[in-house]
Fold NAD-dependent epimerase/dehydratase.
Amino acid sequence: MTGRRIAITGANGFVGRVLTRVLMEQGTPVTAIARPNTTCESGVETKRIESLDSITPETFADAQTVIHLAARVHVMRDADTNPLAAFRATNVEGSLRAADAAVRAGATRFVYVSSIKALAELDSGRPLKETDERRPPDPYGVSKAEAEVKLLEFGARTGLEIVIVRPPLVYGPDVRANFLSLMNAIAKGFPLPIGSVTARRSLCYVDNLANALALAATHLRAASQTFHVTDGDDPSVADLARSLGRHLGRPARLVPVPVDVLKFAGRLTGKTAQIDRLTGSLRVDSTHIRDVLGWRPPVSLDAGLAATARWFLATRRGTR
């Protein structure tokens, strides 16, 4: 399954642009599917759609595989009055619409980029495996879990090969949200009350995820499989901050506040969920993709953090 065209929905996004570059460097023909007025990698064939509602079989013409990245992403403060319905509309119904268009266009494989949140917010004392029961913690996770189930049912009915890939937190140049906020706080020398947090978190550098997706799209043994993809190194929250500080040239100012005190403060401020995420472990087992596909992350955790820090510093210099 090499050398055949691959279509990528959400190709203008954080992961999509890196994935496009990785595939093009491998010599794979790529069709980037993106909304109008967005920027994709230069030189890639691009098709514009207003939304997943406007996907048709022609969108995926000549593609043997579709990698579906387009999604309504998780946000900390969702202003929608019915967030679950909004997530389902895009992440479940939109994904099924894309899969239907793909099979009608003649595609044989559909790689669905899910999230570890389809399983859980925290681990239960051991790294999460692909075979663990889905217990999604929030509307975003529920929508991802439902999409997985419905896509697998769709594949069983139609013969479309469904491959599910679940990354944990993805970071790298152009990262946003909490990871960017953490780098900002470290760079500005803000004290961080996480010196006593020993919880370990799995991470995935964006280039590692792109590399794994490219393999999942082409490897014969990936058909009908679910894979977790990580850097293979689960730092504690405090160690992550220390590593970022080292690469940013600004040692992280970590205050050793006891975890019980952090949790009490969370209850007082109505931020229990955020504190639980900060102080709880989320380790993800990625041995399955290594065993089945022979995949190894091409970039180490430390090298990924260093590249992300270089991007951050270059961006700050560019805005002065």
